[in-house]
Amino acid sequence: MVRARWLSVAALAALSAPLFAHAAGTPAGTNIQNTAQVSYTVGSSTVTASSNTSTVRVAEMLDAVLTLASSTVQVSPGATAEELVFTLTNTGNGSETFNLTALSAGVVGDDFDPTLAVPAIYFDSDSSGDFSGPDVAYTAGANDPVLAADASVRLLVINNIPNTALNGNRGRSQLTAAAASGTGAPGTSFGFVGDGGVEAVAGTTGGDAVLFGEYLVADVQLSAVKTQSIVDQFGGQRPLPGARINYQIVVTHSGSGTATASGFGDLIPANTTYVTGSLQLNGAALSDTADGDAGTFVSAPAPEVRVTLGDLSGASGPQTIQFAVTIN
Amino acid sequence: MGTRDWVLAFAATLLVTTLTAHAADKPCVELKTSGETEQEVVEQGNKVKRLVPIDKIVPGDEVVWTITAKNVCKTATDNMVIANPVPEHMTYVVGSAMGTGTDITFSVDGQEFKNAADLQVRAADGTMHVARPDDYRAVRWAYKASFAPGAIAFVRYRAVVK
User: Fold this and answer.
1) Which residue, of A126, A215, A282, B64, has the greatest Cβ tally within 10 A?
2) What is the distance in angstroms between the Cα of B8 and the nearest Cα belonging to chain A?
3) CB distance B90–A32 less than 8 Å?
4) Radius of gyration of chain A (CA)
C-alpha cells in the first residue's frame, strides 16, 4: 500500500480557539417570587406577619454565537465542495429558531471570492465534522434550526475554489445566524414572542452572530508512484517464499507552492519481512534506526519504513525511495 | 425542598408565634414587598437614578427589592424584625442591604444570622471560606427603636437575576 503523506503544506492552517459560550441563565418564563416576613412585640405578645408575594417573570434574551472548527482551510485551485465547519450556539435563555445565510462574493478583505455552492449551507447530519453524503442541505424557511438555550448545531458552508486562485491567496466565506424572534441593538424588545409568551429582548450579541472563515490556496501536490521487481533465489522472477521484492517509490511535486516538512511512509506488506538496511533515498543508503538521517524502519504498531523529505518545491526534483522485503 | 416550603419553615424558625389576647385581630404591622429596577433619567437637565416598576428583566439584570412596614394599630410595636430570603434564581448584591435604624445580618444556612464580616461557608473539601454573593440566602433587619402608630419604614437590598 502506497501512502504518500505530507505533514504540512505551504502555510499552516491556524486552529481557532473555541469561544467560551456562557451558560444561558434563568430560563425565560421563570416566575421569581419574593415574600418577606416581619415579627414584632406588642406588650408581651410576639406577632408575625407575611408580606404579599411579589412576582417577577424572567423575559427571554436572544443571543447567538458562531465558532469555526478551523478558521483557515487549505484548498487547491479549482477544488470543489470545500467546507467551512461552523458551530452555532444559542447563548440566550429560551428556545429559539435561527435563520441562516451564507455569503462569499460580498465578503471583503480577501484575495479572491470563493464561489458558494448551491445549496451553500448544510447540517453536519452525521456529525462527521466534514461534508459527507448523509449531510442534509439547509433550506431557509423549511428546516431552520431550533435550538434550546445552550444547545448547539454544527453547520457547513460549501464553496468551490476558482482555478485562477494563486498559491497563498485567501478567500473568505461568511455565515450569519439570526434569531427569528428578532435581532437588533442590545435591549431592543420584539414584543411578547418569547417562550411562554414573555417578552423577547436582544441580548449583548444582538440576537445574531456573523463569522467568516478563510480558504487558503495551496497550489502544491505530491504524488507517489510505486513499482516493484521480484528476484527469487534461483535467479528468476517468481514470487516464491524467500524471494526478494524490491520496491521503488518516486515522489513528484507539482504546482507552484512548497510542501513543507513532507514525509513518506509505507507499511511492510503482510506475509513479508523487511530487508534490514535496504532503505535508500535518491540512491543513498539510510540507516534503519531513528537517528540524524532521513530514514527509519519502525516495527510498531506495524512494520513501516518512513523517510522525511523536507521542503519540496518544483526545484527539488523527483524523490526516489527504495527498500526491499522478502516473501515469508 | 421548594422555595415556598423553605420560606415557611424559615419564618417558623425565625419568629416565635404565641397566643395573643386578640388573636382575631389583624397584625399591627402591614408588610409590602415590591421589586423595581433602577433607571437613569434626566430631570431638569440633570441625570438622576430613579426606581421604576419592572418592565422586563432578563438574566444579568438587577432588581431592587423594597420591603415597607406600616404600623396600622394605635399602639407602638417593639422589637420589629424584618426578614427576607433571597429569591430563587437571584444572587444578592453584597453590601446593598440598607435600612435606617436597623442592625442588618445575613444567613448562609437559613438558620443562623451573622454580620457580613463573620459569614463563613464550608466548602466541599471541608475548608471554610468567606461567603460569596451566591452563598447569601437571607437578609434580616432588626429595629432598635419602637415603631410608632402610623409610622412607615422601609428596608431595601439588590439582587441580580442569574
Assistant:
1) A215
2) 10
3) yes
4) 31
Q: Tell me the backbone φ, ψ of residue B74, rounded to 5 degrees.
A: -95, -5
Interface test with B, best of A30, A31, A32 (most B CBs within 10 A): A32
Cell of A252: 513528484
CA angle B129/B134/B137 to nearest 5° reads 95
Reduced to 3 states (helix: H, G, I; strand: E, B; else coil), residue B155 is strand
How do the pLDDT tens digits run along chain B, 162 residues long?
Answer: 455 565 555 555 555 444 444 444 689 999 999 999 999 989 899 999 999 999 899 999 999 999 999 999 999 999 999 999 999 999 999 999 999 999 999 999 888 999 998 999 988 899 999 999 999 999 999 999 999 999 999 999 999 999
The span from the CA of A198 to the CA of A196, in Å, is 6
DSSP string, B114-130: B-GGG-EEE-TTS-EEE
Cβ-Cβ contacts under 8 Å, A52 against chain B: 31-33
Q: Which residues contact A148 (CB under 8 A, 6 or more apart)?
A: A90, A95
**φ, ψ for residue A96 (rounded to 5)?**
-145, 145
Distance CA A295, CA A285 (A): 9
- For residues A190-213, b (16+ Cβ closer than 10 Å) or e, as one string? beebbbeebbbbbbebbbbbbbbb
Q: Which of A73, A86, A64, A65 is nearest to A15 (CA)?
A: A73
Residues of chain A found within 8 Å of residue B81, distances taken between Cβ atoms: 38-40
Cβ within 8 Å, pair A37-B18: no
Q: Are the beta carbons of A153 and A123 closer than 8 angstroms?
A: yes
The cell for A243 is 524471494
Strand ranges for B14-161 from DSSP E: 29-43, 46-53, 62-71, 78-85, 90-92, 102-107, 120-122, 128-130, 138-143, 152-161
Give how far B99 is from chain A: nearest CA, Å: 14
Task: List the single best residue of A22, A31, A35 to mutate versus B (max B Cβ within 10 A).
Answer: A35
